[in-house]
Design a protein that fits this description.
Blueprint (H helix, E strand, L loop, with lengths): L3 E5 L2 H15 L11 H8 L11 E9 L2 E10 L1 H6 L4 E9 L3 H16 L5 E4 L1 E2 L5 E2 L1 E4 L16 H7 L3 E12 L8 H11 L4 E5 L5 H15 L11 H11 L8 E6 L2 E10 L2 H4 L13 H10 L4 E9 L8 H15 L4 E8 L3 H9 L3 E12 L5
Parallel strand pairs: 4-5, 13-14
Antiparallel strand pairs: 1-2, 2-3, 3-4, 5-15, 6-7, 8-15, 9-14, 9-15, 10-11, 11-12, 12-13
Helix pairs in contact: 6-11, 7-8
C-alpha cells in the first residue's frame, strides 16, 4: 500500500479538504447528518471562534496515495489544564477511513504537537471541549444523531483501541417517549409538586424580549453547576455570546425553563428542537450555485421535527437536593408536549452521574446511545 503522509492544514483549500473529508467517509451511510459548511468554517476560524481567545488548536490531514483518508485536531486548552490536568491535551474532529495506519499517523501527529507544549497525555475526542461535540459513538447506531451529538462508523472504537487508547468515560443518552397526556411519571410529578409547594420557588420560561440577559443568567448557573464535572471548562463571556447567537434561530423560549428561589435564578434546563431532522435535507450546504436551495429544504423540513434534545441543565451547588431538577424536567416536558413533540433525547449524561441518570430513568427514559471518551499517554501506546 502507499505510505501515509500527514500534513498540517494551511490555507483555504486545505481547510476545505478538512471540512469535506467526512463526505467520503459517510458516502454510503444514510444516517450521517452533514454539518453546515459555513458553520464549520466559522468554528475552525481563530478570528471568529472565541474558543481561540484562550486556547489553541492545529488541524492535520492524512493522505494515502494522494487521497485524503483522515483528519484530526490537536488541542491545548489552558483552562482544562489548570482545572484538571496540567499535562493533558486533547484531540478532536477525528474522522478516518477504516485504516489503522492512517489513524495511527494522525494520532502520532497530535502527540508530537502536544509534546512541543509539554503535554504528555491525550484525551478525546473533544471538539474542542466538553462545551462542544465530544465522544465516539460506541452503541446505538440505529438512527441519525440528535443535534449536537456526534455520529461515526462502528469501526472507530477499533481504530482507537488499536492505536493504544483506553476508555476514559462513557456519556449516556436516554430516549423518553412523550406520554399521551404530556404529564411526567408519578415519581417526578410528586417531587415537583412538593418543591413547588414552597412559595419561594418559581419556574418560568425564558423571556425572549430579554434574550441576551436571560442567556447570561443561564451561563452563570451553568459555570457554577458544572465546575466540578469531568473535563469541564468554564465558558467565557465571548464563548457564551457566540453560542447564544447560534442558538437564537432555533431555540424556543418555552423549552428553556428557569427556576428561581426568592426571585434569584438558581437552576435551568435548556431543550432544543432536534434540528438535525431538518438539516439532513440541506446536505451541508445552505446555497447551491448561489441559490438558497439548502435553506428552502431546511425550512420545509422544520415542520416535521418530532424530537427535542434536553441538552444541558444545571442547579447551583447551594440549591441542590431540593427537587428543582424534577420541577424543571416536568415543566419542560409539558412545554414540549404543547408544542407537539413526541420524544425527548436527554443527553449527554456522565455514566457515573447517578443523580442525573436516575432523573432520566424516572422520566421514563431508556438508554439508547453511548458515546465514549478515550485517553492514552501522548508519547506512545498505553
Amino acid at each position: 500500500m502507499n505510505a501515509v503522509t500527514v500534513t498540517s492544514v494551511e490555507g483555504r483549500a486545505a481547510t476545505t479538504d478538512f471540512i469535506r473529508l467526512p463526505y467520503a467517509v459517510y458516502r454510503d451511510d444514510p444516517r450521517w447528518v452533514a454539518p453546515l459548511e459555513r458553520e464549520m468554517r466559522t468554528f475552525l476560524d481563530p478570528r471568529r471562534n472565541p474558543f481561540f481567545d484562550t486556547a489553541e488548536a492545529r488541524l492535520f490531514l492524512a493522505h494515502r496515495g494522494g487521497r485524503p483518508v483522515g483528519r484530526i485536531a490537536a488541542v491545548a486548552d489552558p483552562r482544562f489544564q489548570e482545572r484538571h490536568d496540567g499535562k493533558c491535551g486533547h484531540f478532536g474532529l477525528f474522522e478516518c477511513d477504516d485504516d489503522l495506519g492512517a489513524a495511527g499517523a494522525l494520532f502520532d501527529a497530535v502527540a508530537a504537537w502536544l509534546a512541543e507544549r509539554g503535554l504528555t497525555r491525550m484525551l478525546g475526542p473533544l471538539s474542542f471541549s466538553v462545551n462542544d461535540e465530544c465522544g465516539v459513538l460506541v452503541d446505538g447506531f440505529d438512527g441519525p444523531p440528535s443535534v449536537g451529538m456526534p455520529y461515526n462508523p462502528p469501526y472507530y472504537d477499533r481504530l482507537l483501541t488499536g492505536c493504544g487508547f483506553g476508555k476514559a468515560k462513557d456519556l449516556l443518552s436516554w430516549l423518553v417517549p412523550m406520554p399521551p397526556d404530556g404529564e411526567p411519571p408519578a415519581a417526578i410529578a410528586r417531587v415537583a409538586a412538593r418543591t413547588l409547594a414552597d412559595p419561594a420557588v418559581r419556574v418560568r420560561p425564558l423571556d425572549p424580549d430579554r434574550y441576551e440577559a436571560e442567556m447570561a443568567l443561564v451561563k452563570d448557573i451553568y459555570n457554577d453547576a458544572w465546575a466540578e464535572n469531568y473535563a469541564s471548562v468554564p465558558l467565557t463571556d465571548a464563548e457564551f455570546l457566540h453560542m447564544a447567537a447560534q442558538l437564537k434561530s432555533v431555540i424556543h423560549p418555552h423549552l428553556v425553563r428557569i427556576a428561581e428561589v426568592d426571585g434569584e435564578p438558581v437552576a435551568f434546563t435548556l431543550w432544543v428542537p432536534d434540528v438535525n431532522q431538518a438539516l439532513r435535507a440541506a446536505r451541508g450546504r445552505l446555497t447551491t450555485w448561489g441559490l438558497p436551495i439548502g435553506m428552502l429544504r431546511i425550512s420545509r423540513a422544520m415542520a416535521g421535527i418530532t424530537r427535542v434534545r434536553g441538552g444541558t441543565s444545571g442547579v447551583r451547588k447551594e440549591h441542590r437536593g431540593r427537587g428543582l431538577m424534577a420541577v424543571l424536567l416536568a415543566d419542560a416536558q409539558r412545554a414540549a408536549f404543547r408544542l407537539g413533540y413526541t420524544e425527548t433525547d436527554l443527553s449527554w449524561i456522565l455514566e457515573d452521574n447517578r443523580g442525573s441518570n436516575r432523573h432520566a430513568q424516572a422520566m421514563g427514559g431508556g438508554r439508547f446511545r453511548t458515546h465514549r471518551l478515550y485517553e492514552r499517554d501522548s508519547g506512545g501506546l498505553r
